[in-house]
Amino acid sequence: MKRLLIFSLILLLKSFKSNAYIKTHILIAHNIDSLQINPKSSNKLDSIEKANNKSVIASGSNVTKAYIFLKNGDSTISLTANIRQDHRIFGYSRPDIKSKRLLLLSVFTDDVENNPFGCKLGSYYDTSRMDDLTLKYLETLENFVKAVAIDKTNHKTILYFEKKWIVIK
After folding, report:
1. Coil, strand or helix: which one is 149?
2. Predicted structure pTM score
3. Which segments within the chain are labelled E, that is strand?
4. Could you read off the pLDDT tens digit of each residue along the chain, which spans 169 residues?
5. Separation between Cα atoms, residue 106 and residue 124, nearest integer Å
6. What is the DSSP letter of 86?
7. Fewest C-beta atoms under 10 Å: which of 13, 74, 101, 165?
8. Residue 72 near residue 92, CB atoms below 8 Å
9. Alpha-carbon distances, residue 166 vs 9, 34, 160 (angstroms)
């Protein structure tokens, strides 16, 4: 793919008259070919992912879950962090754990600080710390809970949580 890109650039550049212009762009094309992707950042995320998932799995059923209290007519999703119990709940763009991660609720500092997974809606320890965001339950879809995140400007984003992390009362 890189070679095709370089070949295309060379053909394009040959159509220009200026030798200096051509030499500059051939040098740029050569540098593109020699670029290396730095795996350090992805390796760090992978190690965070592995360690924190392992901890949640080891906790078994002794984890903190998010709650929705429908009896009172309020569909707000709430989760209060408990330092003695793990939780790591992603909100996804579709009802599929391989879809884009939009939000993370986690007890783990390395999951939350600086939003390392780049979740569009952010990473939080619990819902009480989400000053500019409210989560509302919409419906249950098989193994997922469909919700909406509403920010202070009333902008709404649909997201999905795995049902196993949510308790509906």
Report:
1. strand
2. 0.71
3. 66-68, 77-78, 88-92, 101-106, 123-124, 133-141, 144-151, 156-162, 166-168
4. 444 444 444 444 454 444 444 443 433 333 433 333 344 467 888 888 888 888 888 888 889 999 898 877 789 999 999 989 999 999 999 999 999 999 999 999 999 999 999 999 999 999 999 999 999 999 999 999 999 999 999 999 999 999 999 999 8
5. 6
6. B
7. 74
8. no
9. 53, 48, 11
